[in-house]
Amino acid sequence: MGRLRAALLGVAATGAVTAAVEGAPPGGPERWQRTNYAGRQVSLLGGLAQAGGTSLALLGSGRTGAAAAVAAGAAGALGAVDDLTEREADRHVKGLRGHIGALREGQVTTGALKIAGIGGGALLAALVLPARGTGPLARLVHRGTSAALIAGTANLLNLFDLRPGRALKVTCVASAATTLAGGPGAPVAATALGSAAAGLRDDLSERTMLGDTGANALGATLGTALAAHPSRVLRGGALAAVVGLTLLSERVSFSRVIDQTPALHALDQWGRR
After folding, report:
1. pTM of the model
2. How far apart are alpha carbons 264 and 196 in whole angstroms?
3. How far apart are CA 119 and CA 259, in angstroms?
4. Superkingdom of the source (predicted)?
5. Rounded-to-integer distance, Cα 129 and Cα 181, Å
6. Which of these, 11, 68, 134, 227, is most buried using a 10 Å CB contact count?
């Protein structure tokens, strides 16, 4: 019942924030308008609603929820900075390798600032989570790997936000699995599931999009839920998967793989206009 309540709270909070930001868009509606991959005008307010609604709903999930709210809030805020202030010169810089390469050349991109800020928020969230381990070194390693998992998942989910509904579908599937896995992070994962489900229709219809704001916030929430799980095997497997997929994305197009895999392509296309 706790997980069901968390999911419903995610739906309700995201719906309420959606109504609020669409009724009075910060800075005006034009500030949030973007052109998507198909040349259609969509609104980034969907991502703002996801970040705000998820963070608000997480406050009802105890200590793990508070840690997730810190991670989601930081990731959403830094994602909004990137969405709203990205310079034209930074638009060609993509991926971790691109931003690190730009730093080596003395160019500080908004994406690099986002990565640093999300990492800081993830570390703070890891400090809020209960430490696991029998000694100082073990607890330090747990804190570090938890922060890496939270920040890495925030970044990874953003890599899927290239087509309508894709990142939200990934969130729904991954959050449902994490919810069923149980543990202290289950209500947090259920909150992410409810929030993602609440925004799915508008995203699929290309009325709104997540942008970095929404994708980073949802990813950080999911990462915190995974980091809170008591199973070392599950946490280690999740971190390995996140790192592996992130590195793979530097060389392989996720969109191409999805389009060439019938089952993934069918799921990716489901619900689109």
Report:
1. 0.91
2. 19
3. 32
4. Bacteria
5. 18
6. 68
